[in-house]
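explain this chain.
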Amino acid sequence: MMLKKANVLLLDEPTNHLDLESITALNNGLINYKGAMIFTSHDHQFVQTIANRIIDITDGKITDKQLTYDEFLEWNKERVSS
């Protein structure tokens, strides 16, 4: 897909069923990818190293933040506790 010069990648749980070496290779490839990506993942480290924008959809509300995943979690924790 990357060789076809696609401008958007849509990935659903891309690290499921991959070994650590494959996850690392995928992670490095996606870091170097210059197009847009939309993905879901339960892999915290993967999301933290790849994502620079978080779109959270909860209870019918959309939150769109230009943050890393850890920054988003901290922002959300502060928002909920206030």
Q: What stands out?
A: The beta strands are 8-12, 36-40, 54-58, 61-65. Helices lie at 20-32, 44-50, 69-81.
